[in-house]
Amino acid sequence: MDVMDDLRAQVEMMVLDANGRDGLSTCVLRVSNPFGPGDDCFVPFLIAKAKSAWAKFIIGSGKNLCNFTYVENVAHANICAEQVLCSEAASVAGKPFFITDHEKVKFWDFNSNILEGLGYQRPKIHLPAKLVLLLIVLVKGAGQKSLSRSYSPLLTPAMVHVVSCTKTFDSSKAQRLIGYSPVTSLEDGISVTVESFSQLANGLPYLRQKDFSQPSKAELLLGSGKVADILLWRDEKRTFTCLLGLFLLFHWFLLSGRTFISSTAKLLLLLSSILFSHGVLPCSMFGFSIEKMPSSYFEVSESVVRHSLNTIASIWNNGLSLLKSVSEGGNWNIFIKVIGSLYLVKLLLPFSFSVLIAIGVICLFSFFIIYEQCEEEVEKLVTISASGLKKSKEFLSTKLSSFLATYVHKSEKVQ
Question: Membrane spanning segments where (predicted)?
């Protein structure tokens, strides 16, 4: 419970305690997430988030449900409660009632509808709530030490809990006892709210024209399948499972101090022991059924083997073709690419293999999500870099060609 929840609880107790005093009849209306024109809390918070570094992120799975209540429905609920308290006070006095728009919606879909209506980007990238909480703690600690004691982050642990957890309420009691029903639909309430905050609309036209329902280029590059879900953090459990598996393999082969052959032998021994133990277990034990692994799990189809061999043969042939082109000396572009690749290898040689593997894994799980978040910026940078490399390659090709031609010509004169 945060400070606001504690304050609401205290106010609710005061209202209920006042019931029956000096002929006063009271009840409590528990409004779930009110919104509408004139809102100085929820919508401004969404706009501030849309302009911050969190603009493209969904905290949690994005499937958490919430109830929202349009401000006209809140006013209507107060009128209904007042009328019943004046006529049939005994049936409702001293009781709390939940007030909603009678619609359960995904919290992030609701936010996205308001943000898109105001010209801001719909968040798409999923971040685990636990990871965000860890980041908040680290940033808060660094901010308090380096900036000032009055450091106030945009997100707090209580906010992360609110935006990542399902929280719905049943307003059927209010409908039955005080005759409350929404007078404005949720969709109409969102439209009116967006129009009322037109002064906060984003003036960038490309955000209004861009279709954020289409898969990103990073997702298309990864094949829009399981690999994309893992590397773009769409499926948090699968991503963490892969990271944990890679870490265990990294520790097993590179940090254990054993040789590669010894680590491989021990791993095969461990897998063989697990498979053998699983095979000798009965089909049922202590009331639990144990599913046996069929032999088809260990079979490799002929088409897969053929495809793998064709891939290896293709890589080998392409390598030989590349070496032949370099040895003939006719293609300067290939020569420059080979020299550049060898120079890059030379730069990486001082680093240990374990460090390179660790950097590669970190880049693998961070590059694509950064590319999706900053797609336009990355593409501009790639375009500028490609243009610069192309000009440099053309310059080097021309200079090397003229230099070698001059050198050969002088050599012939000397002879």
Answer: 240-261, 267-288, 347-371
